Amino acid sequence: MAELITLARPYAKAAFQTAQDQNQLAEWSDSLSFAAQVTSDSDMRTLLGNPNLNEERKAEVLIDLYDGSVSEQFRNFVSILSQGKRLALLPEINDLYNTYRADIERIVDVEVSAPFELTEEQQQTLSQALSKKLDRKVSLATKVDPALIGGVVIRAGDMVIDASVRGKIAKLAEALGS
Predict the structure, then answer these.
(1) What is the model's pTM?
(2) CATH number assigned to the domain covering 2-103
């Protein structure tokens, strides 16, 4: 997987730079997201891996799915990927692009696990506190995890804040065991 990310990185950077220069970050994000979903489909992977189909035709097949709603620059980008036999990298390119975009727009995705559904007010309070702590806009997603007993587990990128009862019990057991 690390190899795919390494191969995808220059393409993602080029896509991001192009989108930024054209002030079309959202449009490119939408286009890349769609392309990533399409190329992740097993039938499409089979089609794109078909050695009897030339690279130009593979790019056309993918672009035709957009019904003419993409820019000429995005068409060229897909064509370049196809010529280099890199269409299969589109999911990784999309992930990297979104990381670059979130970084420039100072947005962080935060996942909060709680043993119960959080109210709108609790989510708002948590979002504001995390926004101040992380110095970024917070995009909050919540999920229910009944195994937590109480408290919450917050994940933002590689940062994890375990403020759950289960986590505190585990720390206590570890302290008593040593």
Answers:
(1) 0.70
(2) 1.10.520.20
